[in-house]
Amino acid sequence: MPIMRAAFASRFDDADPLAALTVGEQPDPPHWSDDWVTVRVLASSLNHHDLWSLRGVGLGEDRLPMTLGCDAVGVDPDGNEVVVYPVIADPGDPRGISLLSEHAQGTLAERVAAPRSNLLPLPAGLSATDAACLPTAWLTAWRMLRTVGRVDEGDAVLVQGAGGGVATAAVALALAMGKRVYATSRDAAKRERIAALGATAVQPGARLPERVDVVIETVGAATFDHSLKSAAPMARIVVSGATAGHEPKVNLRRIFAMQLQILGTSMGSSDELAQLLAFCAEHGVRPVVDSVHPFSQVTDAFARLHSGDVFGKVVVDHTR
């Protein structure tokens, strides 16, 4: 059986997830069916999903060792550069779907296996390291704005907790769509970087100069009251995460009096990823990249993400 180098969860450690990360040799990923192919990985990016996996959240011991990583750009068996859509049909999962690295082996390796229909052409003008940022965090932000948040119907957007992958993607995309964007961060340095992107950066809880049509909410309890107070009548508050508490207090009077919509979502479809790729290529939008690490130093990439000091995506270059 062919052997490849991979970064994988060998055990779980909730207190110190980096201690559960192993970099070493693994068998080539198996094909679940005849329509699966093997892709040689050129670049990948990390998500907090990878750290949660190392903690044992959403991943059982019966699936160890599990190669981590959801996002990848690579070369298919025909020599085409492709972006890997990470959501696969999975009858063994209660959702009917799963992400690469949940049941099927992930992308942080020399090679990844996926259905051929999950491979999208890499658009001209997008580098492999840039496109590797898009399939999870940026796709989630795209769906939050365009599909669920119906941002085309509004003019102003609030993004809570900018700095993380999804939130920073939402800032960049909303600006590229011509919206007025307000973004919060507790970190003064991150607020400066948000402002440099073209958004109005404010401290968490600060009163905005206007009510917004769409709120991008990935923080949760720490910011949710501010999200409600900042929403214009009939605004959409779109939730895809709860990094700072999943049980906020909610003022129901404000919701019905202002006719607010609270909408949950995660990830997006293959068609939406194709739309995102085309939008980035056409409008010259490039992901906000915190750092790029050679695959030979993938443990440093995990340490960077785990530090909590990132602004944008942490990328792994598999050609180095």
Can you put this structure into words, describing what you see?
This protein is α/β, with parallel strands linked by helices. The protein is 27% helix and 28% strand. The protein has nine helices and 18 strands. The longest helix is centred in the middle third of the chain and has 15 residues, at 134-148. The chain is globular, with a radius of gyration of 19 Å. The chain starts with a strand and ends with a strand.
Low confidence ranges? none
End-to-end gap? 24 Å
The biggest sheet, with number of strands, parallel, antiparallel or mixed sense and barrel status, is: 7 strands, mixed
Shape: globular
How would you state the average pLDDT, rounded?
96
| Counted beta strands | 18
Estimate percent helicity. 25-40%
* Order of SSEs: EEEHEEEEEEEHHEHEHEEHEHEHEHE
Q: By helix and strand content, what is the structural category?
A: alpha/beta
Radius of gyration: 19 Å
Give the count of helical stretches: 9
SS strand fraction: 25-35%
